[in-house]
Structure formats: structure tokens, C-alpha cells
Write a structure and sequence with these properties.
alpha/beta, TIM Barrel, eight-stranded parallel sheet, globular
């Protein structure tokens, strides 16, 4: 199993003071998860690459594009803004391999994601060309949704297929559900509300980590 990584999601942070919000968690985070939503693939609209550019942190930025058919120039905007990794959705792209190869060509970590009802079969052909797979454990879009446990067989199957791959889970992650996902084979945990929704963010991260011991 690869290293456990915690990725606080800024979707639940106060974006008007984003750098001080990140500062609170950065010594205890492996990635900072940045959700980008276009109002087409998912209903909400969030920040863009110009916002990502103002983020100042030593922690790698894990940019999650919940975006319909992101173009090369759109993706490049996030790479230039400092993204460490970029996730695209299988369901949002006609030919996901095209976007994956563009991200790889630009020497950025690549990740492909699937929604709760999408079969793992849809992305098996990309497993050798991505650095990480994100299994959504809620419907992408709104923060604070309930963890969908029925997504765990996909995590289990993926871990069997790829013992060394980073497998990320996102949605409804807290100390209880992170344990369930960990036992299924996940090693990268995106948590928004259960970190930024708490007064003591560091204690919240430690609680998730303690549940994985």
C-alpha cells in the first residue's frame, strides 16, 4: 500500500482568506485539494486558475477539474498557476486519454476520476498512464454530502489491480468513513467539512490519521 496522504479540501474553507486557512493545516497536509466546478458538469461554479495563482503554500496543489471537456489551454492555466496534479473526470471528456496525455506532456501528475455510479471498467485502459485515480464517494458538486459506501468495491478491485497506485477518495470523508475507505484500499483522503468545518483543524486531521492506524 502506498503512503497515506491527507488532502484538505478548500471547498469548505473561507476562500476570502484562503492563504491563512491553508496555513492552519499545511504542516499536517500532504496535498491541498482544489475543487474547480464549471456549472455544466456539476451545478455549482467555483474558482478558476487565477484564484489558484494566489494560493501561497509549500504543500502540492491537487487540482480537481469537475469541468466539461476542459481544453488544453484551460488545463494549462492551472499548470501555470502551480498545480502539482490535475484530475479530470472520465464522464466529462469525450476522449479522456487526450487530456491525460496533455497533462503528462506538461510534466504534471495526472489523475482520472469516476462518479459513484460509473463502472471501474470505464477507466481501466488509462491505469498505466495515470499517477492516481480518484473514486468519488459522493456525487460531485456540493460539499457536506453523505459518504456512499457502495463505491468501496471499486476501491477494492482497483487496489488488487494496482497495488502501488495512489487511490484517492473524496466525499463524506471523516474519521469513521476514512477507515472504511482505507480498509478497502484507499490511501489518499480528501476531507473538506470534517477539517475546515471544525474549530481546531489540526486536531481534525489527527483524528482522521488516528483512525487509519
Amino acid at each position: 500500500m502506498p503512503k497515506i496522504k491527507i488532502a484538505p479540501s478548500i471547498l469548505s474553507a473561507d476562500l476570502s482568506k484562503i492563504n491563512s486557512e491553508i496555513k492552519e493545516v499545511e504542516n499536517h497536509a500532504d496535498l491541498i485539494h482544489v475543487d474547480i466546478m464549471d456549472g455544466i458538469f456539476v451545478p455549482p461554479v467555483t474558482v478558476d486558475s487565477s484564484f489558484v495563482k494566489i494560493i501561497k503554500t509549500k504543500v502540492p496543489l491537487d487540482v480537481h477539474l469537475m469541468v466539461h471537456e476542459p481544453s488544453d489551454s484551460y488545463i494549462k492555466g492551472f499548470i501555470d498557476a502551480g498545480a502539482y496534479s490535475i484530475t479530470i473526470h472520465e464522464e466529462a471528456c469525450k476522449d479522456p486519454e487526450k487530456q491525460i496525455n496533455f497533462i503528462r506532456k506538461n510534466k504534471t501528475k495526472t489523475c482520472v476520476s469516476i462518479k459513484p455510479n460509473t463502472s471501474l471498467d470505464k477507466i481501466k485502459k488509462y491505469l498505466d498512464i495515470v499517477d492516481m485515480v480518484l473514486i468519488m464517494t459522493v456525487e460531485p458538486g456540493w460539499a457536506g454530502q453523505k459518504f456512499i459506501q457502495e463505491t468501496m468495491p471499486k476501491v477494492k478491485e482497483l487496489r488488487k489491480l494496482k497495488p502501488k497506485l495512489d487511490i484517492e477518495v473524496d466525499g463524506g470523508i471523516n474519521p469513521y468513513t476514512s477507515r472504511i475507505a482505507f480498509e478497502a484500499g484507499a490511501n489518499v483522503f480528501v476531507a473538506g467539512t470534517s477539517i475546515f468545518g471544525k474549530k481546531d483543524r489540526v486536531a481534525a486531521i489527527k483524528e482522521i490519521l488516528n483512525s487509519l492506524k
